[in-house]
Amino acid sequence: MDEDKQVTREYTGEAKDRRILWAILALAVIFLVGIGIWQWNRRSDTTTYTGYDIIKSKQLSFSSIYGMIPIKDGVMRYARDGVEAVNAEGETMWNVAYNMANPVADAKGKYAAVGDAGGVSLYLLDGTGKVNNVTTDHPIVKVAVSANGETAVLMNGGVDNYVVIYHIDGTRASEINSVSTVNGFPLDIAISENGAKLVISYVYFEEDNIRSRLTFFNFGDVGKSYIDGLVGKAESSETAFPDNLYADVEFLTNDRIAVFGDKSLLLYEMEEIQSIKPVEITYTGNVRRFATSGKYIGLLTEQQEGGHISYAVLLYDTAGKQVERRALDSYYGGFRIEGNDIILYNDISLYIYRVKGNDKYKGGISKAIAYVYAIDGRNHFAIISDNQYNKLKLLTGGTAK
Hints:
globular
């Protein structure tokens, strides 16, 4: 009996050792494969491409596009007669027909909204093609969409202005009434990723001077302790952005807000209520374009000195620290940030470079460019004109056209 027990113990030990050995070998293989993938991606991420190939083309709906907005897995194209979402392969994910005189739109993640500026028609889109049509109480000015489908709609009611936040099903979540003679004329709105926080920028006049005002709202539990959910306000004074017009506001993350002015950029922290003092980034010259991601803020600036015009991209992290300055040899009307790629483009020219790195591609493109977005993060990009999709593969052979 004792021998049988000893044999059993010895056999179990050998089996356990084999399992441990196989586990070690498996981990080693996974490690080596991971190292190989990392090295391949690293080499790929430092490649300068000198040519390209159009590997797929497709005609799209709508010949007259008002605008394009990034959406989950692709881009949303909207026009007077409808809106559609196109994926990375140029396939239509969903589309909705309507009739609008002057569409304005926004999207976040899979959710989107399109409103008729100056009209009262609002379409709320859930990312599957399902739409909820809402008739607003007042003419629409702008829309802003959160990552969970909450949509803030700025409306002009004459003397008063209104912001209504709608759930994706079209029901009302919150409403703000703003008197123009008190706050000024609203220029822009931004809603947080979770749909619980809102920022409104205003312009007003004081002794013939242009002034700016910002209001911060929280509709969550913390905001319930404040009148109308108003948890902060900032306005022009002798020490706070005097004579500076802040026309654009945007949530970079759920808690970080960027306010773009003609002379400086303000970064507010708003975990629940507005931070008392923002980080201010001042600049000279004109800001022609700005682009944001969850990681970076980019400003495309124009400088004029002695009759010479120069352009540059100033890049900051979300804490306000300058990451780099990149001089440009010409102006680009399109400006986007995707991952660590800075994408600049004109009608038939494309310039892509890496943050704190080398150029990825610089040259002409034989197809008309209205919008560009990355497909795989390396060398495949979608080039969209008003009515055509083109899948572009960057090549190391050949020359830029």
